[in-house]
Each structure stands twice: as structure tokens, then as C-alpha cells.
Amino acid sequence: MTMKNIIFSIGIVMGFSGVVNAQYYYDRTKNPDKVAVQKTSTGRDFDHFFYFSWDLNKPLSNNNFISSSSTTGTKLGFRKRLNDEDKLWVGGDFGWAVYKQYIPTQTYTVGTQSLTTDLYNYTYNYSLVANIDYFFLPMKGLFVPYAGFGIGGSYVKFAQYYNIYGTSGDSWGVMIRPEAGFLLGFKESSPWRIKAAYHYDYASNTNSDFNYKNFMNTGFQVGIVKMAW
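Given the sequence above, the corresponding C-alpha cells read:
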């Protein structure tokens, strides 16, 4: 083979190689080093949330001392996801409520002494409770119902005012609180939601000075939730 033919053959091989390389570079689907990344849209993976609620409570016990409902209660709470299925969440909440009752003027007689006055009765209730909640639907949904149970401590301060005088006392007790409600998002996977729930409270607080034994009430709370991850 002559030198001219050798040079011609080398040129053909180099040209063919360039075409193949160019096609390999521009056609990324044939590039084994290129890993295709696919994005999925499954919503945010929330694993905890905070909430603040207004809490309306009605006393079920000790109605001789106070029978009026409380409209000044609030709750501040936190929940943390316990598993990857969005079902079990644990946390706690702090709550407080003020009950007050006005008793019109009457005459009270003790032994040989009598007092005519009106009365103002108050109870100041504070609770710190550990909770576990079960959510029946995935947390990314628009409407998520749940049922929960809480156990913790309860502190109650009692006060009674008459004329220019007053007496007070306090008591500690153990509280249990079953609860059922729902979270309502403004859209699916919303980080802001509305919380509404009905609860029943039972606490072992007693005070003999005010003839106060155990504390039971029902309550309805509604508030705002901030989801986080």
C-alpha cells in the first residue's frame, strides 16, 4: 500500500470517529454516565407542629361554687410525629382558664353571727399535659380527623370575695383528658391549618375550705396550627 493510500485511510477513520463522538455527546440519552433525576410531588413531609387555641369550657362538678362557663381559656401545644405513617403523634400542651360566678346579695348566718353581702367566686385553672394523638388520614390532606388522650398535672386556685374581704386557697391534682377533633388546611399540604376539638377533663383537685371535690368539665377549642418539618 502506498503512503498516499495509508494517509487517506487514516483520514477516513478519524472522520468517522469524530461523527460518532459528536453524536454521543449531543444525544444524552445514550450517555451511560448521565443519571436522570425524576422529581416527585408528594407534598411536604411534616414531622411536627405547634398550635394556639381559644378554649371554651363548661364546669360539670362543684356547681354550687361556680356553674358559669369560662370564655377566657387558651391552650398552647406541640406535637411530634412518632412514626413514618403519619398516624401517631406525641407532645404536650399548657392550658389555663378562669371561671367566675356572681352570687346576688344574701344573708349568711354562722352561729350567732350574720353577714349580708353579695359574693364573687373565682377559680383559676392551669394544666400541663402529655398527649398522644392518632390521626386517621395522611397529614398532607385537607381534612385530617384525630382522637387523642392526655395525662398530666392540674393546679387550681380558688378565691371568694365579699364586701371588702376575701379568702383563697389552692390545690394540685392529676388530670386526664380524652379529646377528638380535626385539622383543616387551607389547601393540601398547607403549613397553616385550623384546629377544632372537643375535650373532657377530669382532675383530682380537692379543697375542703371551699367544699370543692374533683374537677370535671367539657371544653371546645378552636385555634391556629403551624406545621413544620
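The domain at 48-228 is CATH 2.40.160.20 (Porin). Try to locate this feature in the C-alpha cell string yourself.
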